[in-house]
Design goal:
By secondary structure, this protein is mainly α. The protein has two domains: about 100 residues, Rna Polymerase Sigma Factor, Chain: A (Orthogonal Bundle); about 55 residues, Arc Repressor Mutant, subunit A. Helices cover about 70% and strands about 0% of the residues. The two termini are about 30 Å apart.
Amino acid sequence: MSHTRMSDADFDQLLTAHHRAVHAYLAKRTFGDRQLAEDLTQETFVRALNHPEILTSGQATPLPWLYRVARNLLIDHLRARGSRPAEVGTPDLAAVAGEEALGNEIDRLLNSWSVRQAVASLSPAHRAVLTEIHFNHRSVPETAELLGVPPGTVKSRCFYAIRALRLALEEHGLAP
């Protein structure tokens, strides 16, 4: 299976723009293990090299994608490390990974950003129905009256809006 790769110029630009942020994100979560943070940062960008679509996905920045990959790589590292005997002289990162606070704020921000982007990608008609029914808690008849369309149209638009939203969220790495 052949993969397209991003151009060297695009990769250099991505690396220049986001290396520091990704490395800082990982350095905080590896509690000073500079080598591990650097290794995971490098692996994050290697993965990005093989996903040129992150630059053309219509998103304002590929940073949420990079953070998600970095976080997943750290989790994979911790799981793999948990299956081996403890290494001498290294902090117990596996114990730290179990803490509720690990990355919760960034995860919340990334998820919020992804949901906003997914909702923004809907057509105006679908977005209006979804907003009225699910965010403003209006009934189908109330939404129909407000939007000036029949109730059947509201139901249909809501169905298709949710389906489109589910696909958009999956593209952002959030499986509903």
